[in-house]
Amino acid sequence: MMQLDAEKQMRRRKRKNTIFHILFLSSTLFGIVALALLLIQILVDGLGWLNWDFLTNNASRKAEKSGIKAAIFGTLWMMSITAPLSFIIGVSTAIYLEEYAKNNWFNRFIQTNIANLAGVPSIVYGLLGLTIFVRVFGFGKSVLAGSLTMTLLILPIIIVASQEAIKAIPGSQRNASFALGANRWQTILRVVLPSALPGILTGSILSFSRAVGETAPLIVVGAVAYITTLPNSVFDKFTVMPIQIYTWANLPQEEFHNVASAGIIVLLLMLLTMNAVAIFLRNKYQKKN
Amino acid sequence: MARMKQSKNAKELNSFMQKKKGIYSWDRMMPIILATIAGISVLTTIGIVVILITESAGFFQAVSITEFLFGTQWTPLFADPKFGVLPLIMGTFMITLVASIVALPIGFGSAIYLSEYAPRKVRNFIKPILEILAGIPTIVYGFFALTFITPIIKMVIPQTDLFNALSAGIVVGIMIIPMISSLSEDAMNAVPSSLRNAAYAMGSTKLEVALKVVVPASFSGIIASFVLGLSRAIGETMIVTLAAGALPNMDFDFLKSIQTMTAYIVTTSQGDTAYGSVEYRTIYAVGITLFVITLIMNILAGYISRKFREEYE
Amino acid sequence: MSIVQIKDLDLYYGDFHALRNVSMNINEKSITAFIGPSGCGKSTLLRTLNRMNDMIDSVKISGAVSINDTNIYNPTVNVELLRKEIGMVFQQPNPFPKSIFENVAYGPKIHGIRNKKQLDEIVETSLRGAALWDEVKDDLKKSAYGLSGGQQQRLCIARALAINPKILLMDEPTSALDPISTLKIEELIQELKGDYTIIIVTHNMQQAARVSDQTAFFLNGEVIEFSDTSKLFSNPNEKKTEDYITGRFG
Question: B189, CA 20 to 30 Å: which among A187, B46, B233, B308?
Fold first, then answer.
């Protein structure tokens, strides 16, 4: 009798395990299904509108004449400032914190500060950019103001990713260099950075793609949606792909939703390429170690 | 080599008393240069705090803090403007509520699956997909809410508004699933496998190990991931701007148009409110409210997960 | 003739008194072994000789460490040039993730040698000096990580030789190696003795007995006994030394 009970109980426990296994699996699949639906819907609506004209036309009041050229160029202009600037500032900060900073209250404060900055909503960076870059510095609603705002926004992500990459270099490497009479800067330049670079690049590219996809802070800074000329200098007004998509999505006409879908396809392709490069770098790097 | 050594004279022997030369001097300048650059992130924080305080100070000279915090009407652009922020907070709260109903159980369940159940191959397949999901711009999610989720809701409940809190909330939830899942999974992975083995050795099923050993041991990490996810939902802007509408109200009706704090800031800064006017300054007053709420949540999450780290290291 | 003179050396890690009143003279072109149980201070003393302890914030030092009668803790000493005079080999082989050539050329490049021909020469001499040349001469461009553990450790020795030091510090250089690689390194140490002053920390008493001329026995941060190796192992003066070498503790 007792053995029968135990067997019954065991079967019950196993069944419960199976039910929850299925539940947990389906919650994981939920994300995948959502992603698939999102992509399918956008491809179905947008693919028909995606052609060479769409890539080379400027914004228009007519859906069939609308293009994303100005927005693509705006994004490229912005990233040509944001990417190098945030990379230099971010990697420098990470090197300082990991290789030079002593464990005192000031450096702990910088570290906490960076962690908190990473959690500040992006729209707040928009307010910062609007006040400081657009008004106080007088850059106006320009490429420069937008780029600097984006630089500050992605800075914490680059810093943290670079710190992780630098931390992963074992101390024995540094000791070998010091014992040969290298000073700290030589050691950083010749031992630490070459080994940490793939990790730093991966993190940086992922944060660049965050900047390419960001919308809200740039709206606040004043990147305008309806633009028919390309920027000629960093002081010109500009728009970016996400804002262009936002504008199309906001229009009541159904055709513009399809135009928006086509815009999203272009945006996602650009991001996918960037992420693929980042993942490629990371895998190459992981194999080496 | 021996010959080389023997030829060294006494002066050379103490060569380490020489003055530092050019190739060594960068070493003294670099820490100063790098520390200066590191100061930019501190300046950013100071900048955010200072501009939010000074710009909203102008607002609070015109509007009392009591009216702002406790007023139940938000109509800054009307002829008779009302500046009660509660409707915007209500909008943000409704979005966050729907998002957490969607994201917390699903994120939690998928974390358990990935950490405890999934075979290596499946895991290696699913993790990158969740990363892609996390990398999709919010504007795309917003578009998805407006053109896919909303029509479905309207099919089920026809009286739903085109812009509504439910659709935006669901999609905000989908957006934060990868974040909650991956942070919770990290916390679960940090549980030493010796604890799991002890439970398996006593004949526990996977479910029993997951719920009775792993989850309790990583509980604070999981909670921290929830708090961070919600903080992300509160700060989310484009989904709610596109799909939730622009009608601040206190009705608590998920099928109606609402407005969140973030959506208000975006919508207003797009318009042509005069620089320096009270209406213009509302975006800073709302901004500082948003900043304080998310800051408190992030500090809370950091505090919870630090406590958690001490248990294992 | 002594090349290293240590006088009344005390060292603290924060509150921990790691070296107590150490005084000793180390002979030029000889092999000196430091032995003793873990945590006795032998590695710490080794690291004070090239000031690697400077990296640790909480270290406080009093007393004098002199090389050729110049105190290396004198504030005007250029630490980088000091370390150029003193090569170091670590417990775990720690080649850089670079080619074999770049590993050996690293030190000379740091100290300003740019000439390719000169670098080629230094790399060959150093690899020959570390008895590795014949094994790697065709693979100089390949990654150092492809070498076996023993080869990696000899590469690290070659890397240290490349800066043309007078003193070679070895911190348990064979503790991570198999017996055959260990034997090769021990033979190499004997060969290097003609040109370098070698100080080796080891937890392996037989190794100290096999390779060294003089041996210092450490216990709790103190030098208990320092004498010729043959004497220390056959007829120690101190009871504690005898207890340790006969395996009663440690």
Answer: B233
User: Nearest by CB to A93, which of B23, B38, B290?
Assistant: B38
Higher pLDDT, B308 or A34: A34
Considering CB atoms only, which of B109, B135, B266 is closest to A123?
B266
Comparing alpha-carbon positions, the chain B residue that sits nearest to C161 is: B1
User: What is the ipTM score, two decimals?
Assistant: 0.93
Residue A260 structural domain:
53-288
Q: Using the beta-carbon criterion (under 8 Å), do C81 and A177 form an inter-chain contact? A: no
Closest CA relative to residue A222, chosen from A149, A156, A121, A152? A149
CATH classification at residue A212: 1.10.3720.10
Q: Summarize pLDDT for C183-197 with one digit per residue, the tens.
A: 999 999 999 999 999
Q: Of how many residues is chain B composed?
A: 313
Q: Does the structure show a pLDDT above 50 at A123?
A: yes
Q: Is B2 on the interface with C (CB under 8 A)?
A: yes
Please say whether the beta carbons of A143 and A224 come within 8 A. Answer: no
**CA atoms of A2 and A96, how far apart (whole Å):** 68
Cβ-Cβ contacts under 8 Å, C194 against chain B: 2
Give the count of beta carbons closer than 10 Å to the beta carbon of residue C115: 10
The minimal CB distance from C195 to the residues B2, B21, B23 is found for: B2
Bridge partners (DSSP) of residue C117 are none
* pLDDT for B4 beyond 60: no
Using the Cβ of C92 and the Cβ atoms of chain A, whether some distance falls under 8 Å is answered with yes
Residue of B nearest to A279 (CA): B128
Domain C30-51+79-245 in CATH 3.40.50.300: yes
On whether the CB atoms of residues B237 and B137 are closer than 8 A, the answer is no
Within-domain flag for A37:
no
**Pairing, β C214-219 against β C222-228:** antiparallel
Which domains occur in chain B, in start order? 86-261 (1.10.3720.10)
Its pTM stands at 0.91
Split into its structural domains, chain A has a count of 1
Q: Is A3 on the interface with C (CB under 8 A)?
A: no
Question: What residue segments make up the domains of chain C, in order of their start?
Answer: 30-51+79-245
- A130 occurs within a structural domain: yes
